[in-house]
Every structure is written in C-alpha cells, then in structure tokens.
Write a structure and sequence with these properties.
mainly beta
C-alpha cells in the first residue's frame, strides 16, 4: 500500500503562486507515476499533470501548460506541483495520485491522497 498526503493548498490572489507537495509512505514511491488532478464543485475530476517514475516523462493538461510545473524527489518520497499565474478558474480541490502507468485517466491510478483546497480569489 501507498499512502499519499497533499499539503500546500490555501487562498491566493489571482496572479499569485502556490506550491503543492505530495508525500508518500509505504511501497516504493520511486517506481510509480504521480499524477495531479483537481475537482471543482459540480465538475468532474480533471487531469492536471503527470510525471513518470524517473521524471523522464511529464504531460500537462492544456489549461495549465506554461503555468504549472511538476517535479519529484524520489529520495524524499515527494512530488511537487508549482502553480504560477493562478486564475480563479484554478480554484478546486487538488489530489495527487500514484499508479503504474503514465496516463491521464484517473481510473488508472491506484493510490490517492485526500486532497488539498486551492482557492484563487481577490
């Protein structure tokens, strides 16, 4: 089993930045793809970005390209999501997930965190 815990969410003004962290415990984190997803009230869960186990592959959703950046430190069992130029439309609960296949599909991720709220508002 892998347990994932997100942190770093909060309230930020439009144009601001936040960095989310996803810290894992349990099974070897370094062998897993990490994905970030988000869900706003009344909407389906949306793919944000993924990073493969070795960091060789990253893939960004269209709505965050050029603003969000994913990275990971396998020695610390942690993945990071740097979010810049935040917009009100980025407001959502952000979830990290881990799985065995680098894919945009939420159903392919076996392990999920509880989520962290990000609110972008003036």
């Amino acid at each position: 089993q892998v347990q994932l815990v997100e942190s770093g969410g909060g309230l930020v003004q439009p144009g601001g930045s936040l960095r989310l962290s996803c810290t894992a415990s349990g099974r070897t984190f370094g062998n897993l793809t990490v994905g970030w997803f988000r869900q706003a009230p009344g909407y389906d869960r949306e793919f944000v970005v993924l990073i493969s186990s070795s960091s060789f592959l990253t893939f960004y959703g269209d709505s965050v390209k050029g603003r969000f950046y994913i990275s990971r430190d396998n020695a610390k069992n942690t993945a990071y999501l740097q979010m810049n130029s935040l917009k009100p439309d980025d407001t959502a609960v952000y979830f990290c997930a881990a799985g065995f296949v680098p894919t945009r599909a939420p159903s392919a991720y076996k392990f999920w965190g509880q989520g962290t709220q990000v609110t972008v508002s003036s």
